[in-house]
Backbone:
């Protein structure tokens, strides 16, 4: 009897739709924002382009799923500090806006141009 070779799984576990969805979403993003606009001409060119995209994706791009911070900021533990700073700035802006709206409006001076100048 012949021995069976062990099988290997792909990128996602069997019957794991959540992980599969994330992988598909990642591939869609890479294609839409990296591969299609830049159109690599060779495998080496594609690797260079994708490596640059991955670096930008992890260090520059804000991600809604982690509170609009970069993955690098989250990995370094700076995400809470960034969110707190945003909240502080929003509160200060809200306070300035409320003060501006609470003050009575100053009457606007009406500018009248003589008819002879217009004609």
Residues:
């Amino acid at each position: 009897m012949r021995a069976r070779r062990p099988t290997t799984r792909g990128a996602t576990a069997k019957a794991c739709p959540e992980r599969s969805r994330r992988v598909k979403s990642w591939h869609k993003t890479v294609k839409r924002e990296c591969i299609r606009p830049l159109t690599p001409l060779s495998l080496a060119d594609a690797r260079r382009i994708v490596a640059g995209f991955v670096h930008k994706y992890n260090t520059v791009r804000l991600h809604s799923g982690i509170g609009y911070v970069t993955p690098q900021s989250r990995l370094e533990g700076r995400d809470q500090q960034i969110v707190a700073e945003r909240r502080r700035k929003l509160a200060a802006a809200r306070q300035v806006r409320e003060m501006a709206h609470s003050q009575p409006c100053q009457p606007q001076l009406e500018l009248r141009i003589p008819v002879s100048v217009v004609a």
